[in-house]
Structures are given as structure tokens and as C-alpha cells.
Structure prediction request, 257 residues.
Amino acid sequence: MIVRKSQTELEVMDRCNRLNWQILQEVARNVHAGVTTCDLDRLAEKLARDAGARPAFKGYRGFPASLCASVNDEIVHGIPKDRPLREGDIVSLDFGLIKEGYYGDAALTVAVGNVSENTERLLQVTQEALKRGISAILAGGHLGDISSKVQEHVESNGFSVVREFVGHGIGTDLHEEPQVPNYGSPGQGPLLEQGMVLAIEPMVNAGGAQVMLDDDRWTARTADQSLSAHFERSVAVTSNGPWILGEPESNKSRAGA
Ligand code: MG
Prediction:
């Protein structure tokens, strides 16, 4: 069942995703050579708890940390480690929290110092794929409109979308229906309706789409050891288009539409 949220619930989710996004950006600002992903995990958890929120991932199906930190060929669900980040690495940071009974969820990939031109392009294409997917969100449209926009942008740039992991509905549960694949056809899939909230999260591999799972049973990495990037925002469906929760500008344009 797809849960549609009332305007009041969306306002709560806007606040909670704003806090989530602020924390994620603060964590991203602390990424540099020599920092460990355990350091970043501790920072994310402290910022959430100081703000009266609870980290969403810690203990979720046994996940041991507050932050998913996936380095280089790790795609998603990387467990924070004590190994320092190095110049030229990329790290995907995925963070969620719960506050006032609702979940926030977002992710971004950052470069550690200088990276190659192709790595920079991978980050840009993944971020742009998220933006294009979000731009397809409109009440009356279909889920496949989002998926196809993401896939088209990624593949036209010579990269691959991961199939094994998908975006999701979000609200009083971290993962609600529907699933939001990063591949599909326009006009297909569930109807987008006012009040649905979707976590859109392209996971993009520089090489092939194939995925391997580490022995820790969490860390997913590319089978061909190519780099992978991940960007995510939680977005409400409205009859005026997308409302990126926690994004003040998005809120403003929605109000003015
Ligand atoms: Mg998510």
C-alpha cells in the first residue's frame, strides 16, 4: 500500500529532512584525507542526537552504524571503517534519521581532494541524474517517468545504473512502498499522487552494472571494481511538481507555483 501524507505531515517531513540534509552536508564538509569513515559516523550520530533526533540506520536489520560510508568501488551500505580516507578517493555518505515520528533520508558522494576528470564526471552525472529524476515528479504522472529520466541520463553518459538497489517511499517507515528503480519506461508503474513521498536515489557505476556483496553481508561493491556514486533526496509529489523536502528554495517555488 502506498501511503499518502497530509499537508501537515509533509510539513513535519520537511523539517525532519531539513535537519537530515544539514547534518549530511556538515559531515561532507569534514571529508578530507586522513579522516576515517568511523570519524564521520560518530559526527553524524552526535549531530543527530544533539538535535533531538535518532539515527535511522543504526540497528536497522542489524546495521552497526549511523552512517553508510561507501568508498570508491563500494556502491551502498558501506560499514564505517578505521582506515583513513586518501587523496583521490570518493566516498558516498548515506544518512537517515527519525524525528517527530517521521524519517529523513539523503545521500551524496564527495571527492577526497583532487580526483581524475572521469571521476569528477561520474559525480556530476549521478547528481544530474537525481535532478532530472526529481524534475519528472508530478501528480498525475507515473513512477516510470522518474526512473526513465535517471536511466537515460546515466546511460547516455556511458555509465551504468545499479538494478539490485532502488529508491523507496518514506514516511513513518524508513522504507515504504513503492520501490523506485533507477531504470524503466515513461508512463509505466504506479500513478504519482499528491502526498506521496519518494526517496529518489540513483546509484551509478562507472563500469558495468553488476554488484557483489562483501562477506560482512552489507557492503555492496561493483563486480568490476569500477567506481560508484550515489545521490539521494526525499521528495514529495504535489500537483505543482516536486517538493524536495528540506530544501528551502524548493518549498518557496512550490508555494509560488
Ligand atoms: Mg534511501
The first helix runs from residue 7 to 29. The CA atoms of residues 94 and 107 lie 4 Å apart.
